[in-house]
Amino acid sequence: MSRAFVDEDSGSDETDDMHEIPLPIAPGVRNYMTAEGALRMVEELRRLTEVERPRAAALLSGLDAQAKSKPLRELSLIDRKISYLSRMKAALEVVPPPSSLDRMVFGLLARVEEEGGEVVCYRIVGVDESDPERGWVSWASPVAKALIGRKVGDRITVKLPLGERRMKIIGIEYAKE
């Protein structure tokens, strides 16, 4: 269809293709997080609502229609992130630190020896806290599911999309931030 037949004011702007960020948890599922992760999330939400959004809105208000495209997109991105974090916060449940190192549970760090002898550490955290570079894996990940409830000396097999990985738990400890 020719652009000549499109109503320019009918919402056809830079933000039309932006949709709500989907939650990484199923409806009704709690958003389990460590206390540190929950604090980081609340602080990010505060920063976005109290600093970033007002800054972007103020910038937008002083521009003519032609110059608004990029700032409007930035404001929409901030609003999407605020919406996402607000919905995740509504489902938030902080998991207290475990009282024992007997078995691997949420929040603890497991040192494992993989088949080739390499020692790797995994900490089980919330979905928004996961950081593979640091060895922090979501409680919903295959690695975490294989580790939960296990103890030192247990051998586990993790089923991953690229195949199975076998490992032995050689230590369980409290994580240091």
TrEMBL record:
<keyword id="KW-0648">Protein biosynthesis</keyword>
<protein>
    <submittedName>
        <fullName>Transcription elongation factor GreB</fullName>
    </submittedName>
</protein>
<dbReference type="InterPro" id="IPR023459">
    <property type="entry name" value="Tscrpt_elong_fac_GreA/B_fam"/>
</dbReference>
<feature type="region of interest" description="Disordered">
    <location>
        <begin position="1"/>
        <end position="21"/>
    </location>
</feature>
<dbReference type="Pfam" id="PF01272">
    <property type="entry name" value="GreA_GreB"/>
</dbReference>
<feature type="domain" description="Transcription elongation factor GreA/GreB C-terminal">
    <location>
        <begin position="102"/>
        <end position="174"/>
    </location>
</feature>
<dbReference type="GO" id="GO:0003677">
    <property type="term" value="F:DNA binding"/>
</dbReference>
<keyword id="KW-0251">Elongation factor</keyword>
<dbReference type="GO" id="GO:0070063">
    <property type="term" value="F:RNA polymerase binding"/>
</dbReference>
<dbReference type="InterPro" id="IPR018151">
    <property type="entry name" value="TF_GreA/GreB_CS"/>
</dbReference>
<feature type="compositionally biased region" description="Acidic residues">
    <location>
        <begin position="7"/>
        <end position="17"/>
    </location>
</feature>
<dbReference type="InterPro" id="IPR036953">
    <property type="entry name" value="GreA/GreB_C_sf"/>
</dbReference>
<dbReference type="GO" id="GO:0003746">
    <property type="term" value="F:translation elongation factor activity"/>
</dbReference>
<dbReference type="InterPro" id="IPR001437">
    <property type="entry name" value="Tscrpt_elong_fac_GreA/B_C"/>
</dbReference>
<dbReference type="GO" id="GO:0006354">
    <property type="term" value="P:DNA-templated transcription elongation"/>
</dbReference>
<dbReference type="GO" id="GO:0032784">
    <property type="term" value="P:regulation of DNA-templated transcription elongation"/>
</dbReference>
